[in-house]
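Quick one: structure for this chain?
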Amino acid sequence: MLNISEIAPNLALGDDGIWISGGKEAVSYPQEGNQACFQIEDSSFWFIHRNACIAASVKNFPPPGNGAIFDIGGGNGFVSLGLTKAGFETVLVEPGLAGASNGKQRGLSTVICATTTDAGFKSSTLDAIGLFDVVEHIDNDLQFLESMRDLLKPRGRMYVTVPAFFALWSREDELAGHFRRYTCDSIGALIERAGLKLEYSTYFFRPLPLPIFLLRSLPHRIGINRESGDEIRDHKPGNRAAAAVLDALLSGEVKNIERRRRMTFGASCLLVATVP
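Got it. Here's what it folds into:
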């Protein structure tokens, strides 16, 4: 049974059932970002497939002792809910009040509205940490990963996803508050520099780099701004035939991850590491 006040003494349980802190550490994420994602997550092929890939990797490399996964910077709790449904105890840690409230609305039992610094998490108290499209929002990514490693118990695990390839950089990255994109090798090396041992890494979203480059990156490079709402439309295939083809292509990625196979190309990176 988790004792939140013991591992994060700066937190207090609010009347709404959300753990909160008094601090307000700045984060590089648009204020309206969580609410925008909340409108599309349940029907977006991107969010649904990412959840399937994350769940497959966690099943292959579960938290030690079946401990809780702390979904740091977990937004509206879409990943937390997916991991909970997959049978893993998951705690949403989200500094934005809108995201934390949405996570509670989704039925998550333990929601923390704070950064790990504001919450005051003690060293070596967490069994597992999830950083799902979080590290790219951190200016000093190495220092941040070192701080996450400090929170993990011996043999604790870290699960990470990040956007891949700087060639795919676009206005969407800038609007989202990203500092960079990665390769599996570059984020893997960074994780190991932070003191963890890499257990598995792969790309996923293999069908997406070309359309991202043509529809987002190339227009951005030549100074063409996309129309408002295009980002939301990107999350829904244009017709049933396109959706069927995309589903068929992406389903193979989940099977590859289930078999611990490494895919060598894609729009995102997924990694699992442990404290040696």
